[in-house]
Amino acid sequence: MQQGTLMRKVKSKSWKKQRYFKLQEDCMTIWYQSKRTGKTESAFSISDVETVREGHQSEVLQSVAEEFPPERCFTIVFYGRRGNLDLVAGSAEEAQCWVQGLRQLIEVLPLTFALVSCTWIRDWFQKADKNKDGRMNFKEVQRLLKMMNVDMNEDHALRLFQDADKSESGTLEGEEFVLFYKALTQREEVLSLFQEYSEDGKKLTLLELADFLREEQLEDEGTEELAMELIDKYEPSETARARHVLSADGFLMYLCSLEGSIFNPQHRGLWQDMSQPLCHYFISSSHNTYLIEDQIRGHSSIEGYIRALKRGCRCLEVDCWDGPNGEPMVYHGHTFTSKIPFREVVSTLGKTSWGNSSSPLPSMGMSPASSHPQRYGHSTAVQGIPVLPESVARSQGASLSPTPQELKHKILLKGKKIGRLEDTLDGPGDEAPDVSDDDNGAEAEEERRRAKVKGTQHGSALQKDKETLAQALSDCVIYCKNVPFRGFQEARSHSRPSEISSLSEAKARKLIRDEGNEFVRHNAWQLTRIYPSGMRTDSSNYSPQEMWNVGCQIVALNFQTAGLEMDLCDGLFSQNGCCGYVLKPPFMRDKETLFNPSDPSSREGPGPITLTIQVISGQQLPKVANSKEGAIIDPLVRVEIYGVPADQAHQETKYIENNGFNPRWDETLQFQLHVPELALIRFVVEDYDKTSRNDFVGQFTLPFANIKPGYRHIHLLSKDGTSIPPSSLFVHIRITE
């Protein structure tokens, strides 16, 4: 990789050009240049790379699959909205060299806070060193401070510069710049906390650290063992480690680590019971997954599926329509969205469904085209998609309420079904076949319109094909038979746990308002899917929180649209190993529950709790996108609570003028939570503007149940949910009943 490799950069079927790629000596940067001109086209940092996919795992590489074998192809996927980089190596060996090399570099990058700091220092040095001589004069340092969101008095900046210039050369290089950076990033608030527990002010002994963990971090078990682990893991000095003491540098590294994060590290892995019925979980769900833009003229792409699955989504939508030569196509019917072949979607799902999670895909919404049943009923099995067929369900003695544990590595189809699940498993009874309706509202209307058009086009000649198709598809619909919703009483009398109803956001809101408790009870035994209004042609989102408040499991959102709603979704599903399943609270799993989100007192359990948040400081906050050169942000922090109506609240700090580098607020915000089990806490940093709307800087959202009390860092995310190290907030959390 450091010697350089000639590869083809592919943008389309007709754009395939050779470029020379090389990993730089810092093992952090890759640049590439045109073979023809020799001009360097672009460069990117390893820290910008989210993942590397092998083979034809992008829309572009699938379009050239006949020309280039999969073993020579790979895709570099970047964080955020930057486009993929699709490459074809000269040989399978070269491709493997880059794939494995990149993966190793990505893996070692986030290991320690020290590495993040080193990367940060190196990146800033390279940005500020205008003449690329490896040294930095005072003028370049002043420019650097502006770039880093620091508005510093010139005399103070010169004093820091001169203190770091040990060689007295008038420039900083190598270790001198590191000294300057450390002086710049001195954390007084952390140092004073350290000295509060350190007898000599220079180190924390094992017992002193254990006292801090017990009294401040509220670690109640094995504090001395934990203290020893933290010293071994975060103390940079070998001598100090041997003496079982923690220096101020080690203390800061611990506080900035995952163990010092506000998010409980024990909840990052799979920690919840996965043996409950499907209807007892919130399930990460997307709407019109194939779209990556708007709903009318947007681009349909397999990237929509790949991105959603990588994000932990476990419920996808596939809308199939007849295409040319009878080949089914996926797109948003009766609109101008582009189309993708159904076989490409199936192939993609087969390769990527289980990358992040073995949890079932419980409801892959399929609206199949009318003809060629063999292409639908069986293509999934042929291409390796593990759809759960009725024969397997029968042989496994499947229950009417299967669990995620029982359905691992399986895809469940949601759709119409002939008859009942009991008939499928036990053989037909005496009842006449019951063919379920499709979704209510806009989706049902679309289905009726399509059926009418198809009927006039095909006539009776294809009636037999349609019947065969209906049966073939029906046999694949096991646990998610789609039924119309005709009221809670009707559902209790006639519906079954293996069935699911789809409601528009407007219909769901009316039910929440009029029959909140009945809605919660209904969702304790049957699945409900909520979908966005047809008026949201711009792919905007509704608030998922109000739907979760009544226990709706499949709350479908437009994953391609960043913003508050997706922050809440990412926040809820960031726990439990990011498997896409979160167990509902006990009072929402009881069919006879009295809980109604509009009346918090109806919840059984202890009374309200008080959440007290001291917002202490911020670290190296990013600049606002598209801001003027030299502009420095005026940051404020707003804490927002999302949950039942009585808990909805927000408070904010004052703004700090001209300091995005190390602002200090030292302000305390306090909230009362009546139903903490449903509460999500969102920390937002904004750039204050007195004449217009504040600009977004960063955010972090997590469920209240995952909060760790004590002194904690909050590692901020960008608008599209990607990390922006080392930007963070330093807070103190206290929870009292």
What distance separates the N and C termini?
A: 57 Å
- Main sheet characteristics: 11 strands, mixed
In CATH terms, the superfamily of the largest domain is Phosphatidylinositol (PI) phosphodiesterase
Strand elements, count = 30
- The helix fraction, in percent, is 25-40%
Coarse structural class:
alpha+beta
Subcellular location: Cytoplasm; Endoplasmic reticulum; Membrane; Nucleus
Domain PH: 1-107
Region (Disordered): 353-377, 419-462
GO cellular component, one term: endoplasmic reticulum
Question: What report would you give on this structure?
Answer:
- This protein has 737 residues and is an alpha+beta fold.
- It has an 11-stranded mixed sheet.
- The protein has 5 domains: 5-112, PH-domain like; 129-185, Recoverin, domain 1, CATH 1.10.238.10; 188-260, Orthogonal Bundle (Recoverin, domain 1), CATH 1.10.238.10; 278-426 and 439-445 and 468-588, TIM Barrel; 606-736, Immunoglobulin-like.
- Helix content is 30%, strand content 24%.
- The longest helix is centred in the middle third of the chain and has 18 residues, at 441-458.
